[in-house]
Amino acid sequence: MNFKPALGHEAIHVRFSKALEEQRLHHAWLLYGMKGIGKACEAMAMAALYLCEHRNGSEQQGAHACGECHGCCMLKAGSHPDFIMLERLEKKRDITVDQIREVLSFLSLTGMQSEKRVVVLNDAEMMNLQAANALLKGLEEPSGGSLLLMVCHDLMRLPATIRSRCMLGHCAPLGDTHMNHVLAGMEFSDVAKKMAVEIAGGRPGHVACLQDHKVVDGLLQWQALLKDVQRADVGDLQNWLDTHLTMIPHELIIDVALQEIQSQWDGTGSFTSRESLLKTMWSLAAWPKEVVRHSLRAGPALMALLLELRLVLKSCAVA
Fold first, then answer.
1. Which of 99, 95, 103, 112 minimizes the C-alpha distance to 142?
2. DSSP letter string over 240-286?
3. Band of residue 319 on the pLDDT scale cut at 50, 70, 90
4. pTM value surpassing 0.85
């Protein structure tokens, strides 16, 4: 449980803290930015501060939850009656209208510990249209003491009507100093640490799973298969997908794939072949989101892209 501002997002925390101290706190905040940079951690720090009974901190760095009062202890234990964390249900494509209605009903009640109620809505861009419309009504008619903290990885997927009713907080990828500090606190093997540094891109959450040796071993196998993707055995590629797609985050799979493609391509080829390669790489980069957005079967969709990539790379080599 994070009670202090998330590394790299202190400026947003200070804004929130000052607004709370001056009793001019907006009822809905929207933290947006790349996935894996600590937005949800910061949202939890803000929720803890709001519910805390004895705040600590300074004017320059902003206040933070004490971590010791009754409210903080309940929040840490996951039993605070005036707090809800809402996420997309497992195996569901969207955040549903029923989930949003449940949240709005909760926010309309009087808090059990005080007048305050807090909801952290993660992956807010995954709301379907009905859910977004239901939330909009709640944003237009907020209840006293209610606070909605939304976390969003793709801001433009949220309706403009929702964005315009929230206090926006842009969260940028972490700089080298903060990244080194976070990575130092993770239990990486030497191989995993090297891989994490190469593909993190300021997103510690993006590489946290590399603490699992099975994930690292799987990605090393993936790298080996893609060393010469034009000649890789299709059966071996299929076996890898069947074994690892449910274990390794799709974004990491694509990061490693794109790294290997870039290392193999020397920039030669006709204009048409280069354009085809860039288009295929773009499709690979979009594959994780497309799987969720359109409920695609992940394995067949990725295999189709890999076969297309083989043909494009061959055409570049011939040209």
1. 103
2. HHHHHTTTS-HHHHHHHHHHHHHHH--S-S-HHHHHHHHHHHHHHHH
3. very low
4. yes
